[in-house]
Amino acid sequence: MATYPQQPAHCKLKFLSELGEIFNSGAYSDLTVKAGPATFKVHKAILGVRTKFFEMATREDGFLESKDNIVTIKEHSAHAVWRFLTYCYVGDYPNAENKEIAEDDDETYLKHTRVHALADMLDVPNLKIIAAEKLETAFQVWDTGPFIQCFKEIYATTNTRDAGIRNVLLCAAAKNIHSLLGMQTFQNEFEGYGEFLAALLMKIKPQINSNTVTSRTRVNYREFFANGY
After folding, report:
1. Rg (CA), the chain
2. Does 92 score more than 70 pLDDT?
3. pTM above 0.85, yes or no
4. Which of 61, 146, 183, 227 has its CA 20 to 30 A from that of 201?
């Protein structure tokens, strides 16, 4: 078997940069992806390597909507699709907004939630991992309201197999339990998520038994669970 010399890191970075530059440039493009108001010029070979969805879609007997070399991704934000496509070319995706897309970007937490949902639909496990890691980083700047929306979207688009991103939610909620308990609508917001709340209770149990949680918080939390939530 032939062996090849190890390439310097800067050569690999240059290659990835050049590969990223052909994304949506139109150069050598043989496929168009549409999402909302956005249209992206891409390459079957690159997308087919990343996900079987595009491999299947672009075959001769592939999806009907791809017969004219156009694939439309519905029910996902244009920015999430753009981030997915960027990942296909360079192995990562940016947090920054794409100002060329005539649609508001997803909120800070939802950027990663929606990339994760799209990656799940397209069966791209590595991208799901990246999205979960980015969400964990985003939670370092805490905002209770957006967290609630993020939480609900994740639970609507994942199941128990998606332990990675669900655990990110759990750890963020435990770390910011005071903020969550301070919400007047806490019980209403989390009603129906008993499995998550049970896991959260076990996660913060050491805090409940220590001086890091005030007595008032301990009472509220226990009353909350006593009510059957």
Report:
1. 22
2. yes
3. no
4. 146
